[in-house]
Design a protein that fits this description.
Elements: H1 11-21, E1 25-26, H2 38-47, H3 62-76, H4 82-85, E2 86-89, H5 92-103, E3 109-114, H6 121-126, E4 130-135, H7 144-150, E5 155-161, H8 173-185, E6 190-194, E7 219-224, H9 225-228, E8 237-240, H10 243-256, H11 262-271, H12 280-294, E9 301-302, E10 310-314, H13 323-334, E11 336-337, E12 339-340, E13 353-357, H14 362-373
Parallel strand pairs: 1-11, 3-4, 3-5, 5-6, 6-7
Antiparallel strand pairs: 2-8, 7-8, 9-10, 10-13, 12-13
Cofactor: pyridoxal 5'-phosphate
GO molecular function: transaminase activity
Organism: Flavobacterium branchiicola
């Protein structure tokens, strides 16, 4: 008997597989196709011949953990104790899974804001807990009145994703004010803040949970080197939590992966001395602006994109088909792969919206845009 009877093949896998089968340009799955920084690959090439291939300590390679603590301090003016509050994870998804498994118990409830990343719900179900899916407003801002009505004495956790995948929305100071009010009413709720796109924001700077004093003692933050440094295949990230929560998270982590692959930890530890994460926003904003310019004469209506490397677009002027059907035809008939937004909702809400990934080289964006403008 399946523990996840309603879980099927991920829409990302489906669309990428179709893109390969039909030789379509893949703007669906969120991975960059441009080269990794040569400074990082040079570090890896050198390290490959050194003695860096055995287990690191369970929580992470100590020099990397010290580098992360410096990064947190320089980015958010927060001082953490790496040996007590930090865990290096095999990607952000493992950090999310491990956190939920460690902190959520049977019959607890977890608030998930839709549209939502598909890795949130399954670990909740595996805990025999209840995912409570609460839709965002149509402009993808949180509806705090609805969120509060969805909370109860059973609510153990609220998951926020900021900047938000798939919509590119970022939370505001008002949102954090409302969150603070909510948490005062429910003092046992823990926040899981998924901030994997934290350095990829544009006109407005990302506001991190790290900067909010009311969250420090009751929030787990999840970050991703894979997203920040265009190395998604490395599957390496980190999780930060107060000591009393981190103790429980580490208990699960040690039996799930024990320790993360060593060479990536050694390499990123060195790389953090030479890379400037503050340049990432400018880099991706240029990508966003170029992609939007390429599509300005298309029939797609582009929605605001405040962060991440995803662009949401409406195809309502093109077709009345549901978004899954439209995306499949976009591949088979026009040679471009995208992701239907309805798959991020528990009720598969269809607003004729799809998601493109613009973390691609200019040739790929130009080739895709040419096809999209012909529709």
């Amino acid at each position: 008997m399946s523990k996840l009877p309603n879980v099927t093949t991920s829409i990302f896998t489906v669309m990428s597989k179709m893109a390969t089968e039909y030789n379509a340009i893949n703007l669906s799955q969120g991975f960059p196709n441009f080269p990794v920084d040569e400074r990082l690959t040079d570090i890896v090439a050198r390290l490959a011949k050194e003695n860096v291939h055995q287990y690191t300590p369970m929580a992470g390679y100590p020099p990397l953990m010290n580098q992360i603590s410096k990064l947190i301090q320089s980015s958010y003016n927060r001082i953490i104790h790496p040996e007590l509050e930090l865990l290096v994870t095999a990607g952000a998804t493992q950090g999310i899974f491990t956190t939920i498994l460690a902190l959520v118990k049977e019959n607890d409830e977890v608030i998930i804001l839709d549209p939502s990343y598909d890795s949130y719900e399954s670990p909740v179900l595996l805990c025999k807990a209840k995912p409570v899916r609460v839709p965002l407003n149509n402009d993808y801002t949180p509806n705090w009145e609805t969120i509060e009505k969805s909370c109860s004495d059973k609510t153990r956790m609220i998951i926020i994703n900021n900047p938000h995948n798939p919509t590119g929305k970022i939370l505001t100071e008002t949102d954090f004010l409302q969150l603070n009010i909510l948490l005062e009413k429910y003092p046992d709720i823990i926040v899981l803040s998924d901030e994997v796109y934290e350095y990829i924001t544009f006109e407005e700077k990302h506001i991190s949970a790290h900067t909010k004093s009311f969250l420090i003692d009751r929030c787990v933050m999840v970050s991703s080197f894979g997203k920040s440094f265009h190395i998604t295949g490395w599957k390496i990230g980190y999780t930060i939590a107060p000591e009393y929560l981190m103790k429980e998270i580490k208990k699960v982590h040690q039996f799930l992966v024990f320790s993360v692959n060593s060479i990536s930890q050694f390499a990123i530890s060195e790389y953090l001395d030479v890379v400037d994460v503050n340049l990432l926003g400018k880099f991706y904003q240029e990508k966003r602006d170029y992609f939007q310019k390429l599509l300005q004469n298309s029939r797609f209506e582009l929605k605001p994109c405040e962060g991440t490397y995803f662009q949401v677009a409406s195809y309502a002027n093109i077709s009345n088909e549901d978004d899954v059907t439209f995306c499949k035809k976009l591949i088979t008939d026009h040679g471009v792969a995208a992701i239907p937004i309805s798959t991020f909702y528990s009720d598969h809400k269809d607003q004729k919206l799809i998601r493109f990934c613009f973390a691609k080289d200019n040739f790929t964006l130009e080739s895709a845009a040419k096809k999209l403008c012909e529709i």
